[in-house]
Write a structure and sequence with these properties.
Strand content: 15-25%
Distance between the termini: 64 Å
Bound molecules: 5'-O-[(L-methionyl)-sulphamoyl]adenosine
CATH architecture of the domain at 325-512: Orthogonal Bundle
Number of strands: 27
Shape: globular
Number of helices: 24
Radius of gyration: 27 Å
Largest sheet: 6 strands, parallel
Strand order of the largest sheet: 3-2-1-12-13-7
């Protein structure tokens, strides 16, 4: 039996869970469920990071005792994970005594080994991402030093105090040796390269205590200081397995098999500081750290200030209300959408319109159809007790789906083993399509009408068995829905991953209950009304953020989101210093017929002919081009994600169509004042241009 210890980051409790924190937690849950089905001894850990200054400030702002505040917030996280069908094994809070003990023990060990020393500190601190920066790392701009890492680039604060330091610089060579010997340890590969570059560029010792505030684990032997929140937080992964006292448990579970984290906390913390701390106390680094990408909200960064924070529990509730599906099934649907929509590892764009579209097409129509149709047909011809049916007999002639099942099982398994969480679903849904095609080819309803009972039984057995196999692949992603599908196939007990690799487990003659649609299709009119009133139905982050931004978001993208910013230009994703900024932002696929917009809405978009005056590549951003364009009476700077499709020479002098009234944004320190329109098909991208020579500035309607 393999043991598999995997972790999520522990989340700051100054705010409630949002779609981003849910994404990592759900990913961990998918992976854990897969391993449990494989028969592994799994430990899935999550928790809350409670010693951050911003957490203390949030408590103070509410006038609540910080301990009471963090306890309440930790409960909010647990409640959210329960509502999203997350089955974690352990939950840790950093204010727990066992954790304080672990932090102090680790601190002492490093101190004894000479890896911690006292010294004066002067540097710049970001309260938002709780990170220290040197003056070189965070250059001054317009009288402030914006944080180079934090998504909102908040101003840093100068910190001057006497602190304790961890001798990280001494670990540079050992870290590089480890990375070299274990290429599988840092994934995906493009992020590993960022870590290598960061470590090779030279590591500085890190300040690991703070004297101000007093909110945190006291430094052993010096209660005037508390341990720096990141140093404290990383140790949670060891506390969870019994460090420092429970050696048997620690031996069983350490090193962790997988730390799942977002790209914001990948390079510096999980791939550099943490392995070095572990090496310092003589423990092995984790077997793998995986850094996934970030969700943008309708092309914009998610932020409380903007008011576009998406709460997954509310989205699931909204989906449940619209469809009539029970809340846990709606939560499953949201889980499915998150992993089907964007490749794990890359950035993506979240749009509620796309969740609705996928609910109807992928889940209600495609997945729901295969089960419902075959069960309803079985009831007509092979009736069983209580209005249900019995499993019909297979016939040797039906083979279309059985060999495909074996291939698909290998593909889904390989994808899950490499954390290609989207790839596994893509393969499974190709199989769903194959079942639907099979039904269309074999027309069992015609066989039923013509009284060809034996042949009909063969076709229905083949379909039901295919659905059984499919439910196993679905169990990690759609745990409640897949269980319900299995119940409707008459299968109540536990199953194994392996069972999807076997054909023929359904027993002829076994009872099949009366089916009910698991994903009730959302009525088209309800859907359109829901989109129009999206912000009223699902306000963005309730307490502190208004719903206005959410209205803008959905109103601007009723058809499924804006054009892919990372490709066609305009506001490409920005973010932490650790991300590939123009990297892989996937937009929603176009959603046909989801909702219409009023002409007035379209008229709010100012489209103009523009002439490209010059174009150049943006250093270190392999997809971005920086354009200077003319609108006749005005020149503008535009960043476009076109470098993969056009050379600067091909663009210079060309007439293009510009979305001229898009709010300007700074990307990589450059202003982007508009977005070019482009059509895309598969991997092809083609810029729109007028077919006559019109002057720059001409209106497009
Ligand atoms: N407390 C630290 C982590 C300590 S781990 C020892 C922290 N907490 S956090 O609450 O800010 O959570 C950060 C994590 O939330 C990211 O690494 C990522 O896993 C997840 N996400 C936050 N926003 C996200 C998106 N917009 N998109 C995807 N995931 C995001 O950092």
């Amino acid at each position: 039996m393999r043991r598999f210890y995997l972790t999520t980051p522990i989340y700051y409790v100054n705010d409630i869970p949002h779609i981003g924190t849910a994404y990592t937690t759900l990913a961990a849950d998918v992976v854990a469920r897969y391993h449990r089905l494989c028969g592994d001894d799994v430990l899935l850990a999550t928790g809350t990071d409670e010693h951050a200054t911003k957490v203390l400030q949030a408590a103070q702002a509410r006038g609540v005792d910080p301990f009471q505040f963090v306890a309440e917030m930790a409960d909010r996280f647990r409640e959210a994970w329960a509502k999203l069908n997350v089955d974690y094994d352990v939950f840790i809070r950093t204010t727990e005594e066992r954790h304080q003990k672990a932090v102090q023990a680790l601190f002492r060990t490093l101190q004894t080994r000479g890896d911690i020393y006292e010294g004066p500190y002067e540097g710049w601190y970001c309260m938002s991402c709780e990170t220290y920066f040197s003056a070189d790392e965070a250059p001054e701009a317009d009288g402030v030093r914006p944080c180079p890492n934090d998504r909102l680039h908040k101003p840093l604060q100068l910190v001057q105090e006497t602190n304790y330091f961890f001798r990280l610089s001494a670990y540079q060579d050992r870290l590089l040796e480890w990375m070299d010997a274990h290429p599988e340890a840092l994934k995906p590969d493009f992020r590993r390269n960022e870590v290598l570059a960061f470590v090779r560029s030279g590591l500085r010792d890190v300040c690991i205590t703070r004297s101000a505030g007093g909110w945190g684990v006291p430094v052993p032997g010096d209660p005037s200081q508390v341990v720096y929140v990141w140093f404290d937080a990383l140790i949670n992964y060891l506390t969870l397995v019994g460090y420092p006292d429970q050696t048997a448990s620690q031996e069983k579970w350490w090193p962790a098999d997988l730390h799942l984290v977002g790209k914001d906390i990948y390079v510096r913390f999980h791939c550099t500081l943490w392995p070095a701390m572990l090496m310092g106390i003589g423990l092995e680094p984790p077997r793998q750290v995986f850094g996934h990408g970030f969700w943008m909200i309708e092309g914009a960064k998610m932020s409380k200030t903007v008011g576009n924070v998406v709460e997954p529990v509310r989205v699931a509730g909204w989906l449940s209300e619209l469809s009539g599906a029970p809340p846990e099934i709606a939560a499953d649907a949201l889980r499915y959408c998150l992993f089907r929509e964007m490749p794990f590892g890359e950035d993506g764009n979240f749009a509620r319109s796309s969740v609705l579209a996928r609910f109807n097409s992928d889940l209600a129509n495609e997945l729901g159809n295969v089960l419902n149709r075959s069960l309803s047909l079985a009831i007509q011809t092979f009736p069983g007790a209580g209005g249900g049916a019995v499993v019909p007999r297979p016939t040797p002639t039906e083979t279309a789906l059985s060999s495909l099942a074996g291939d698909t099982h290998r593909r889904v398994t390989a994808a899950l083993e490499t954390l290609d969480l989207q790839g596994a679903l893509n393969a499974a849904w190709e199989y769903v399509s194959a079942i639907n095609r099979y039904l269309a080819d074999r027309t069992p309803w015609v066989l039923a009408r013509d009284g060809k009972t034996e042949e009909l039984g063969g076709v229905l057995y083949h379909t039901l068995e295919a659905v059984r196999v499919l439910t196993v692949w679905c169990l990690p992603y759609l745990p409640c829905a897949a269980r319900e599908m299995r119940r409707q196939l008459g299968l109540d007990g536990e199953t194994t991953w392996e069972s999807a690799g076997h054909w023929g487990e359904l027993q002829p003659g076994a009872p099949l209950p009366v089916p009910t649609p698991i994903f009730p299709r959302i009525d088209r009119k309800v859907l359109q009304a829901a989109l129009a009133a999206a912000d009223a139905a699902v306000p963005a982050s309730g307490e502190r953020s208004g719903a206005a931004a959410s209205r803008v978001a959905d109103a601007a993208a009723p058809g499924g989101g804006p054009p892919p910013a990372g490709r066609a230009g305009g506001p490409a994703p920005t973010g932490s210093g650790e991300q590939r900024q123009s990297e892989g932002e996937k937009s929603m696929e176009p959603v046909e017929g989801v909702a219409t917009i009023a002409f007035e809405d379209f008229a709010r978009v100012e489209l103009r002919v523009a002439e490209v005056l010059s174009a150049e590549r943006v250093p270190k951003a392999d997809k971005l081009l920086h354009l200077r364009i003319s609108l006749g009476d005005e020149e503008r700077s535009v960043l476009a994600g076109l470098a993969e499709f056009y050379t600067p020479e091909q663009l210079t002098g060309r007439k293009v169509i510009l979305v001229a009234n898009l709010a300007p944004r700074k990307i990589r320190g450059l202003m982007s004042q508009g977005m070019l329109l482009a059509a895309e098909h598969g991997e092809r991208v083609s810029l729109l241009q007028p077919d006559q020579d019109l002057p720059a500035g001409a209106r497009v309607r």
